[in-house]
Predict the 3D structure of the following.
Amino acid sequence: MNIIVCVKQIPDPETPASSFRVDEAAKKVVPAQGIPPVVNPYDPQATEAALRLKEAAGGGKVTVISLGPESARDAIKHALAMGADEGILLNDPGFEGIDNFQTAVALAKAIEKVGQYDLILMGRAAADWDMGVVPMGVATLLGIPCVSIAKAIERVDGKVRVTRVLDDGFQTVEAPLPAVVSVSNEFGEPRYPQLRQIMLAAKKTVQVWNAADLGLSADQLGEANRWLKLEALYVPKVESKVEIIEADSPEEKARILAQKLRADKLI
Ligand SMILES: Cc1cc2nc3c(=O)[nH]c(=O)nc-3n(C[C@H](O)[C@H](O)[C@H](O)COP(=O)(O)OP(=O)(O)OC[C@H]3O[C@@H](n4cnc5c(N)ncnc54)[C@H](O)[C@@H]3O)c2cc1C
């Protein structure tokens, strides 16, 4: 079974709030000093799902793709250390500042270039922008089904059977292959790479494809050609004002409080 897993490198979600900064003029997140980026937490679960499906099928190949800066190689190496077979980094100056839709276009082009695949696995959402739209975008562009937020995935009679997480329960659906499935944290713990696997993965070659390799031209890339217009990016300011009500008795305090709430039209 040939499976493609898309993994994304993101700013560490554990970054302390005091180190999180946004450049409002440039509408960009300023990378926190001394805090290296990490693999999107849902993506090792997608890799885990791919490895289990390959093991159950008794063979095949797991190919990992990441679009990002040179550092995104680490996200690929993590998946290789878990047991994935091949890694491809999509890296090009034209990919800087692109939106989710341009990302989906580039990933779909890369998947078409890989060619042979039965299944594409992704995380349910990237924990930085948290939009969860790339899996649907890629499936739409490839003209194949997409099943989102999976807690269990199995291959049955040439189809994929997926148990989806709903707000109030679970839903089991089947889709013909090839398909895209986005994997949720309910899938379970991903395997932890051993030191030996990490060292072996470090030696594995990661192919690098640029925009031209994917047949993408300058008028499809860069901030200028985003599908989404980013109006503003800012950290919301939380302001609190405390007023202590002084009075001789609890009843008097309650009466003053009620008057103030009524004056502010809160009751
Ligand atoms: C208007 C706008 C401006 C933006 N500007 C910037 C910017 O300047 N710099 C910047 O870094 N980001 C920027 N982004 C964010 C960037 O476009 C998205 O993070 C990226 O496209 C992925 O979308 P997502 O985070 O919504 O992924 P989701 O759809 O939430 O991700 C779901 C899954 O898709 C897969 N996936 C998503 N992205 C990738 C990837 N890159 N490689 C491999 N797999 C992936 C992963 O499996 C992931 O778990 C911008 C977004 C918008 C909308």
